[in-house]
Specification:
The complex is a heterodimer of chains A (405) and B (83).
Chain A (H helix, E strand, L loop, with lengths): L7 H12 L9 E6 L2 E4 L2 E5 L12 H14 L14 H14 L3 E5 L2 H12 L5 E5 L4 H9 L3 E5 L4 H10 L7 E6 L11 H11 L2 E5 L14 H5 L7 E5 L9 E5 L12 H4 L6 H16 L1 H21 L10 E6 L2 H13 L2 E2 L1 E3 L9 E6 L6 H17 L6 H6 L1
Helix pairs in contact in A: 2-10, 3-10, 4-5, 6-7, 11-13
Chain B lengths: L4 H15 L20 H15 L5 H5 L4 H14 L1
The chains are: A alpha/beta (405), B mainly alpha (83).
Chain lengths: 405, 83
């Protein structure tokens, strides 16, 4: 029995993808030209799957902030936040995030994954209960596993199901902490946050909302779904990431709950890792500034989202339930998703493949995400490729079949 | 509402039969992942069904320790009795 025999079935699938020369989980980007274009396998390629929602990765102000901070403070902090890794920039970014969300406390983590790990594992103690939406991101599940609380799942986006599970726990001691997401990353659907907030109030629970995919996307000032739904006072903790709308890497949490500073010395994923380099911190602060000052980016993003969603819907693809910057087409099988993905890439369009168990309901998805940086012509070009190759792959009725109807 | 242990076993086996894409022989010795080919999410979804049918909470860490259907029946019986 060799070490990796336990992964034999998965290894076989991975080997088949590598052999076919089309492995969506191992794509080298030779060059990146802009937020919307790269060179992949020597081919100029339109990027439609990078979560670069506001397209700020090449923003001159963001790049300049990173450059200046790197020159002044060096490439890395070489230490954790609780040792030598807290610089002025870390504290400044935390204040800027708290001010943006109008909250008392802000806390920065080294990745978005670690923000969920660090907050969820630290909020819920041994006798507390975590209630997770069934479709939660892996970082939320992993945060729950890292902590010592009792973990209960409720049916995706169902306030009634959450209520019935809280009712079952009503005589159990300990705090009840609900975790949901703003926009779900697989199908692009949003949580019914007003209804969740009402359940939270009824049962005296706490509410954590992960706005990773909704920061800079939803809400009048871009704060996310809680702002759009008008329930910010009911949301006790907002978690998010710098690696999507803020075009960098890192994670954060903001809250008004008194005493939250203690998290800095109890949250292991915050304490036992190196802090973000000064250049990354400065870039995130500059990107947050751009997000606040340029609401037109959000408007263009949402126009692009609707354009792609309606375009694919018209072609006859089965999509997630509502337009959002994440647009996923449901494929009949994983093999169909791999085949379509490879054909699109060969034609110069980069998308994503998402498979169970990462996806809800055992679905195989051809996932796209749009950016404010896409031009309408780029979106239309992508829709054209979906049409042509969708027909060629038998995912859409052929033109001849349509003509007969 | 089923109360005795035989009823609990019947509820679990019944929920599992409904969740499986094709009929399989089920016994206390059946390994839920290896024998039935369910992935981790499918197992958690099936446990959510059992929670509703028996009006109990089954925390995820207790599911993680379950390997066979017999383990699951014992875990659920214990949780039901503790209520």
């Amino acid at each position: 029995m060799a070490l990796f025999d336990k992964y034999a079935a998965l290894a076989e699938q991975y080997r088949r993808l590598e052999e076919a020369g089309a492995n969506p989980f191992n794509v080298p980007f030779d060059e990146v030209l802009s937020p919307t274009e790269a060179v992949i396998a020597g081919r100029r390629t339109l990027l439609l799957g990078t979560n670069n929602y506001l397209g700020l990765t090449y923003d001159p102000a963001v790049i300049e902030a990173a450059r200046q901070a790197t020159r002044a403070l060096g490439t890395g902090t070489t230490g954790s936040r609780i040792a030598n890794g807290s610089y002025g920039g870390h504290a400044r970014l935390e204040r800027a995030l708290a001010a943006f969300y109008d909250r008392a406390h802000g806390m920065v983590f080294s990745t978005g994954y670690q923000a969920n790990l660090g907050i969820i594992s630290a909020l819920a103690g041994k006798n507390d209960h975590l209630l997770l939406d069934a479709d939660s991101h892996a970082s939320i599940y992993d945060g729950a596993r890292l902590g010592h609380a009792q973990v209960i799942r409720f049916r995706h986006n169902s306030p009634e199901d959450l209520a019935s599970r809280l009712r079952r726990l009503r005589h159990e001691p300990g705090d009840k902490i609900i975790v949901v997401e703003g926009i779900y990353s697989m199908l692009g659907d949003t949580a019914p946050l007003r209804e969740f907030a009402a359940v939270k109030r009824e049962y005296g629970a706490y509410l954590v909302v992960d706005e990773a995919h909704s920061l800079g996307v939803l809400g009048e000032t871009g704060r996310g779904l809680a702002e759009q739904a008008g329930v910010e006072p009911d949301v006790d903790f907002i978690v998010g990431t710098f690696s999507k709308s803020l075009a960098g890497v890192g994670g954060f949490c903001v809250t008004d709950i008194a005493g939250a500073e203690i998290l800095r010395v109890v949250s292991r994923p915050y304490m036992f890792t190196a802090s973000l380099p000064p250049g990354v911190i400065a870039a995130a602060e500059a990107a947050l500034h751009e997000l606040r000052m340029r609401p037109a980016l959000r408007q263009r993003l949402n126009e692009n989202a609707v354009r792609l969603y309606r375009g694919l819907e018209r072609l006859g693809f089965e999509l997630g339930p509502e337009p959002s910057p994440v647009v996923s087409a449901i494929m009949p099988s994983p093999d169909a998703a791999f085949g379509f993905w490879a054909a699109l890439l060969k034609a110069g369009l980069y998308t994503n493949v998402s498979l169970p168990p990462a996806t809800p309901g055992g679905l195989a998805l051809l996932r796209s995400s749009v950016s404010a940086a896409h031009s309408p012509a780029q979106i239309d070009h992508a829709i054209g490729l979906f049409a042509e190759l969708g027909r060629a792959q038998g995912l859409l009725p052929s033109r001849a079949a349509l003509a007969v109807k | 509402m089923p109360e005795d242990n035989e009823d609990i076993r019947e509820v679990i086996f019944g929920a599992l039969r409904a969740a499986l894409p094709q009929a399989r022989p089920l016994s206390d010795e059946t390994h839920i992942i290896e024998d039935l080919g369910l992935d981790s999410v499918a197992v958690m979804d099936f446990v959510m069904e059992i929670e509703d049918r028996l009006d109990i909470s089954v925390p995820l860490d207790q599911i993680a320790e379950v390997e066979t259907l017999g383990d699951l029946v014992a875990t659920v019986q214990r949780l039901k009795a503790a209520r």
